[in-house]
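<derive_structure_tokens>
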Amino acid sequence: MEETMKAINEGNAAERAEQLRAYETFCYRICFYLLGTHEQAEEAALLCLDQTAREESFFRMEPSEREQRIKRNAVSCSLRLKGEQSRRAARHRSTCTETG
């Protein structure tokens, strides 16, 4: 029984990964447009796809709804990443001016 459940879950994971793979380029392009560098876009796209993979509802959506969800998640992850980088840069500037 455990082996059967494991096979079902692994098959389900493989199927979900394949479904997400169809949106990788779309997601990356949105992130690149918002962030402007390959490194940042790649990081944000990975965050987006990871977040999306955890959303059970995504896998029950129609393709057009999925595209909208990916877009929303890509924008959200890109803005979050940009905000974190801005905060790090501000801390760095304040540290440099204090010691300088």
